[in-house]
Amino acid sequence: MAGTPHPATSPPVLVASADPARAAALATALAAGGLANPVRTATSVRDAVDLLLGIPGRTRDRVPVVVVTDHRFPDGSGVEVLRAARGHLQLRRTPVVVVGHDATEAELDEMHRLGVSAYLNVGVAAVALLDVVRRLPLPWSLAPAPAVGAHVPGGLR
């Protein structure tokens, strides 16, 4: 399709979930909804922060266009991912969506203070996420994905 951005040149979406199956399901839901951006996944707070800020000695991927993170992880909280994003000049305005089911009032207050874009209940996350992401004013590639087997510039399928 002419004018459709190529996924390899589009900024990534970061999906961080302690449950690899949920991260894969969210990535699949985004792709099925027409998101052409590449999706990077992390399964811990440390991995998510490393993907956001870079790992010493290794170049960081492109700045994500949006971050979707679980609220609870064995090694911390999605609030730490949100805090890392807000503490980095290039990421301060990057939308961050937190997915959970048991945030306390104090945690919700902290997320709002830090500028969370949305807090979604885990039960509706896959359904509501694409709608929330579509409404964010972002420079990304929400576009029909190429048909399976279709020729894509650069040889990707």
From TrEMBL:
Recite the UniProt keywords alphabetically.
Phosphoprotein
Task: Cite the Response regulatory domain residue spans from the record.
Answer: 12-137
Origin superkingdom: Bacteria
Residues with 4-aspartylphosphate modification: 70
Annotated GO biological processes are: phosphorelay signal transduction system
**Protein name, as recorded:** Response regulator receiver domain-containing protein
